[in-house]
TrEMBL record:
Keywords: Amino-acid biosynthesis, Aminotransferase, Cytoplasm, Pyridoxal phosphate, Pyridoxine biosynthesis, Serine biosynthesis, Transferase. It is an enzyme of class 2 (transferase). It comes from the Bacteria. Its EC number is 2.6.1.52. Its main location: cytoplasm. Homodimer. Pathway: Amino-acid biosynthesis; L-serine biosynthesis; L-serine from 3-phospho-D-glycerate: step 2/3; Cofactor biosynthesis; pyridoxine 5'-phosphate biosynthesis; pyridoxine 5'-phosphate from D-erythrose 4-phosphate: step 3/5. The keyword Cytoplasm applies. It catalyses: O-phospho-L-serine + 2-oxoglutarate = 3-phosphooxypyruvate + L-glutamate; 4-(phosphooxy)-L-threonine + 2-oxoglutarate = (R)-3-hydroxy-2-oxo-4-phosphooxybutanoate + L-glutamate. This is Phosphoserine aminotransferase. Its cofactor is pyridoxal 5'-phosphate. L-glutamate binds at R42. Catalyzes the reversible conversion of 3-phosphohydroxypyruvate to phosphoserine and of 3-hydroxy-2-oxo-4-phosphonooxybutanoate to phosphohydroxythreonine.
Amino acid sequence: MTEVFNFSAGPAMMPKEVLQRVQAELLDWESLGTSVMEVSHRGANFMALAKRSIEDLRKLFNVPENYQILFAQGGARGQFAAIPMNLLSENGKALYLTSGHWSGAAAKEARLFGDIDEINILTEQDGKTGVKELDFSDIADQYDYVHYCPNETISGVEIFDVPNVGNTTLIADMSSNILSRPIDISKFGMIYAGAQKNMGPAGITLIIIRDDLIGKARRSTPSVWNYQILRDHDSMFNTPPTFAWYLCSLVFENLLANGGLESVELKNRAKAELLYQYIDQSPFYRNNIAEANRSLMNVTFTTGNDELNAKFVSEANAAGLRALKGHKVLGGMRASIYNAMPIAGVEALIAFMDKFAQENQ
């Protein structure tokens, strides 16, 4: 059988060694004679797992002591509503920096709860999409918070510089680049991420939030999305998605054992550079993102011909290169090369791209 490489944008592939461990202990976790899915979230074993996962994540991200690590349900979309309910004052305003589909969706949801200003930070030059200057320090102090999405999964736009918002709270939706490289958590009031790209399966959401931002939720905020209630109940106000939490804990452990985020970033940059270099030298394919904002996680490309694109996706799938169809919003192709994608997968993709180009010139 041809080795399969899964380029899905999410749910995405997970580290093989993590899945092998899950397979080995699925029916008998920690010698309990039961699966981790069958034990109480309040039992000593799972409580220890939860504690250990938070300690490991704190080490990985170098999370300061004045930040809480919380887990919630509802995915990142749930947080699109939870954030304004928790952090937007009754008569306050928030600023949303939009750079694509997901940052735009977050702004649209936030408008249900208050006064939202929106600034499109994309720019077009020579047919390439990039990001404008990110200094908002002269206007940010009128807002309760500023929100942005550092990596737009659909278009493949990544923002590597942290926006300057002065002393205003900065919030980042890191769903598609979480744990892909080190970041300075202290520059953010809050970051959040759905798990299904770099952490685990869909169904659990990570929140890292500064202590002083907790306890401001409006009275109408549902308890399951109230950050103070989540904190006070150790993310277990209701039964958490225990299997997803367990898988995340194994991923955190695996990342620490393999050199942490510094090592991960080196691997991710090597994979992305290899693929972008091939696209740039090819007369058959093109990428439409400015070099400074090319995503390390989601590489978009096209032949410029819809029929050829469809043929490419079909033949790639038959060759064991799965989920390369671009999002319906954009079309073309998209190779999501998250942490778990080995460089061998990128090399296999390039070999196929070269063969396809020669056969379809």
